[in-house]
Amino acid sequence: MTEFTPHIGTDESGKGDFFGPLVIAGVLVDEKNAELFKNLGIKDSKKLTDKKMLTLSVEIKKLAPHSVIMISNTKYNELYANIKNLNKLLAWGHARAIENILNSSTCEYALSDKFGDESLIKSALMKNGRNIKLVQMCKAESDIAVAAASVLARAAFVQKLQSMENAYGIKFQKGCSALVKDVASEFIDKYGKDRLKEVCKTHFKTYNEI
After folding, report:
1. Of 12, 56, 85, 112, which one's alpha carbon is 20 to 30 angstroms from that of 66?
2. 1 pLDDT exceeds 60?
3. Whole-angstrom distance, CA of residue 173 vs CA of residue 115
4. How far apart are CA 42 and CA 56, in angstroms?
5. Distances (CA, A) of 20 to 16, 62, 69, 184, 209
């Protein structure tokens, strides 16, 4: 598969963040919009500021078929309690993003970052996705479609975190550092420990440590 063969790239955001949702995004890139994306400076979201990602996400949505799957903390904790496997949960999200794009677009390839056995995504795909050639590779963000998906996913994560901050009046830290525990303690003081699961991923060891 060459870079400009039309293909769907998928990526996720929030997997390693204690606070906030899990977001999986997919973007269908062809030769035309791949060139436009490169000119816009689209690359792996880890190399971009939040402000730049939010701006680029608007352009990506204008230029390419896409899908963004956001799993809120309440839903995430519910799904994880049933599945008890993060890779299976990720595979479900990647498969949904691919399926949503294939509902209105035709494509033969999909590419994602490697996070587990690729059979997990394949088995989660439904009718439209069963005929697609799925490729998983390490550091897939070097691919323009996966990079675009990473921008959409992280932008959606950042926007959700901002809306959570507005709703709860608390500045939520990204990642899983000692500062995260301080914020969790602040949240518990304000709302009680039973409501912490509304804003965090409860299977993280940080949850029990708090």
Report:
1. 85
2. no
3. 24
4. 7
5. 10, 26, 14, 12, 18
